[in-house]
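Risk mitigation, structural track. In case the binding assays with flavin-adenine dinucleotide fail to produce interpretable data, a predicted complex structure has been prepared as a fallback.
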Amino acid sequence: MLFGGNALPRLRANPRLQLTAFGARDRAFFEIILCRAPRRQLKRSTFGGYWQPILGSTNRPAEPVPDMKLERNMTMVVQPNVITPDQKAGGAGGRADADHEDRVGAPASGAARVPESRVTVDTQVLVVGGGPVGLTLAIDLGRRGVRCTLIEQKEAPQFLPKMERCNARTMEIFRRLGIGDRVRAAGLRADIPMDVYIVLSLAEPPLLHLPYSSVEQARAEIRARNDGSLPLEPYQLISQYTLEPLLKSIAETLPSVTVRYSCQLESFTQDDAGVTAHVRKADATSGTIRAAYLAGCDGGSSMVRKQLGIRLRGEYNLLELRQALFRCDELFDRIPIGNGPGKARHYHVADGEATFLIMQDSTRHFTLHSVVERDEDMKRMFERTVTLQVKYEMLACQPWRQNLLLADRYRDGRVFLAGDAVHLVIPTGGLGMNTGVGDAIDLSWKLAATLLG
Ligand SMILES: Cc1cc2nc3c(=O)[nH]c(=O)nc-3n(C[C@H](O)[C@H](O)[C@H](O)COP(=O)(O)OP(=O)(O)OC[C@H]3O[C@@H](n4cnc5c(N)ncnc54)[C@H](O)[C@@H]3O)c2cc1C
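Fallback model:
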C-alpha cells in the first residue's frame, strides 16, 4: 500500500505493479486519493462546514426571486399555505390542519418576541435551508399533504459546483417521489460511462482505469438480474447547480409547500406547542413564523445546530483544496483516453497537489480540485492536467475544506437537524448529499405520521 509522500515516486516508478497490489479497486482508489496529498495545518473557520465559499465568484442566479408581502409595521406576512380540496374535505391533511391551528394559533407566553397579533404565519413544518436536503424534505412533506414553509437565505439557487453524484439510493428515493425521470433528464446523458481514471495527464496513457457502467448499461444489468441483489435505480451524475433549481421548481408546484428565498432564520424559541422562528429578509425587514416543528437543513455552518448547542465531533480541516469551475466546450470530445474521447467522469492526477478533474452534467463544464495557494494557480493546474490545446474559461474558484464530523444529536424537542448540519464527510464516494437525502426522507415520514396521525 502506498502512503503520503512516498506514494508518488513509487507510483511513477512502477505504477501498474503497485496498483494491482492494492486489491479491491475501490479501496485502492480511495487510498491513493486520500494518502498522496500533503496534510495542512489550517486555521479553523467560523463556518465549520467543509464547503466554505470564501472568495467572490461569478455566480449566476438561476431563477427569479419570489417576493413576500410586507406590512407597514415591517412584520413579514407570508401567505398561508394552500389547503387542497381533500384536506378541506376532512382528509388526513385537513384534520392535521385543524389540529395544527388549535395548537399553534396562540403562541405560549414568552415564546414569540413580537405581539401575538403580528404572528401571522403558521405552518406545520418550517424547513430552514434550500439545499438538496431541505428541498427534498419539503417535497416529501408536500406530497404527504403536510403544510410546510421552506426558507432560504440566498436570493436564488447558485451556479456553483458542489456535488454531482446521486447514488442509487437517492435515485430510488427520487423515483418514489415521482421525480426520478426529471432528475435524469436534467443530468448527464445515460449513455456516457461513469469511469474513473488515474492519470499523470489527460494526454498520457492512464495509470489505472476503474470502469463504471453508464446509466444505460446499469439499467440493462438491473433488468437482467432481477434477484434483489441490485438497486432498483442506478446512480445519476447531476451537478448540484442543476439539481437545486429543479428541486426548487418541483417544491413550488406542491399546494401545501411555500418556498421563500431571500429569507434568513435569525433565531428561534420553542415551547410545548411549537417553534417560533424569527426571520429576516434581504431588505432587512423581519418577521415571525410559527410552526409545529422546525427542520434545520441549513448546511455545515448550521445556525440551528449552533443555537441548540449541539456540537460536531470528529476531524476538522483534514485538507484544504481549491475548486475551480471551467467551461471548456471541446474537452469532452478531445480527451484521448477512455472508451472513446472524453468518456469518463473523474480523472485523478497522481501529483503532489491531490489534483482531480470532474466532468459536470453538461459535459461542457469541468471542476478541477487542487491544493494550491491562489485562485490563479488553478488555471496552471488545469492546463497541466489537460495538456491539450483547448479554449477554456474559469468561471468560479473557491477554497473548500475536508472534514469528517458528526453531531452529538439530531434533535432537540421540536427542532430536528438533517444533512450537512449534522454530518460532514469527505466527498470521495459522493456521500454528503446522498446521506442528507436519506435523513430528509427518514424525517419526513415521521413528521407526517405525527402531524397527520
Ligand atoms: C467539492 C464537493 C463535491 C461534493 N460531491 C458530492 C457528491 O458527489 N455527492 C454527494 O452526495 N455529496 C457531495 N458533496 C456534498 C454535498 O454538496 C453536501 O453534502 C450537500 O450540499 C448538503 O446539502 P444540505 O442541503 O444539507 O446543505 P447545503 O447544500 O449546504 O444547503 C444549506 C442551505 O441552507 C441555507 N441556509 C444556511 N443558513 C440559513 C439560515 N439561517 N436561514 C436560511 N437559510 C440558510 C444555505 O444558504 C444553503 O442553501 C460534495 C461537496 C463538495 C464540497
